Amino acid sequence: MKGWLLRNPGKMNDPSIVKIMKVVDENKIDLTVVDPLKIHVICDHEFDGRIYVGDEVMDVPDYVIAAFFTEKNYHTAAVLRMLESVGVLCINSYDCIKNVDDKLLTFQKVAESIDEIYFPKTLLVTEQTDAAFVSRVFEYPVVMKVMHGSKGKGVVLVNTEKEMDNLLNMTTASEMGDEIIIQECIKASTGRDLRVVLCNGKYDNAFVRENKESFRSNLAKGGKIVKYTPPTAVLEAAEKVAELLKINMGSVDFLFGENDTFYLCEANAMPGIAFDLHEMFKNLVKQVENMPKPLWKKRLEKEGKSC
């Protein structure tokens, strides 16, 4: 079974990528590192199983691990859509990455489809948003964050209307290039959250991230991991979110509310490596084996051609 790791070969030092490649080497897994920016996106009714990567011609893989991280743009999105269209299992899919990258979209989809899951009230900041309006809609403190941030970057706690006014003036003047959202602060969850890790959209393991020095629980900000077994209702909620957002391998994070209430915080596609990589690759094999034969293969077989 052939796989591709979609990653710039010059950016292989990410800890998660290092762990993946170690398991790949130890188990002699057929996984080729392919730069997604070099893949030519061609939509062809007569597709014959060949994909052009730079000046090379490569056979279509059985699966790809989409771990390009910083190279998310129209081209790499089109690469994923092309691979999916020819029957390649993409971990994760274009739809998944689109859904989880946009924190507001995540909440909107949940609000539309899953009534029993709570999430913090969220406001999209525009040029029309002023501190007085924020004070009408929220009680302080509130959380202000960039839409596409990760590892706790671009997240601040705002305690007063004056602080909000200063931050809104700064973001308007700086033209940051990313959307900003303001969220209700779930005070009971200050410095901690729950991460439910999913493999093939199903519960794999869970842990709490705790940080006694900051309201942000991220490991990159000094947080620590504590193993935790969530209530069954939370696990079921995580799997519902995963199904809705089309998360194959990733996580759903929750905040701790009052009276044993949990609030959806965000969802992630491949958030570091929080599951057993050996099991991940075994799971990939099963998923590939259970996928339907793509149309192009059926067409070639009908024509008596090999692929």
Structure in a nutshell:
Helix content is about 30%, strand content about 25%. The chain is α+β, with helices and mostly antiparallel strands.
Verbal overview:
With 307 residues, the chain is of the alpha+beta class. The protein has 3 domains: 3-92 and 279-302, 3-Layer(aba) Sandwich (Rossmann fold); 99-104 and 108-117 and 188-269, ATP-grasp fold, B domain (D-amino Acid Aminotransferase, Chain A, domain 1), CATH 3.30.470; 121-185, ATP-grasp fold, A domain (Dna Ligase, domain 1, 2-Layer Sandwich). The protein has helices spanning 15-26, 74-85, 94-101, 103-113, 131-137, 161-174, 232-245, 277-289, 295-302; strands at residues 3-6, 31-34, 50-53, 56-59, 63-66, 89-91, 122-124, 142-146, 155-158, 180-184, 192-199, 202-210, 224-227, 249-256, 262-269. The strands form 4 sheets. It has a 5-stranded antiparallel sheet with strand order 13-12-11-14-15. A 4-stranded parallel sheet has the order 2-1-5-6, sandwiched between helices. A 4-stranded antiparallel sheet has the order 7-10-8-9, covered by helices on one side. Strand 8 (142-146) and strand 9 form a beta hairpin. Helix 5 (131-137) crosses helix 6. The mean pLDDT is 89. This is ATP-grasp domain-containing protein. Residues 109-293 form the ATP-grasp domain.
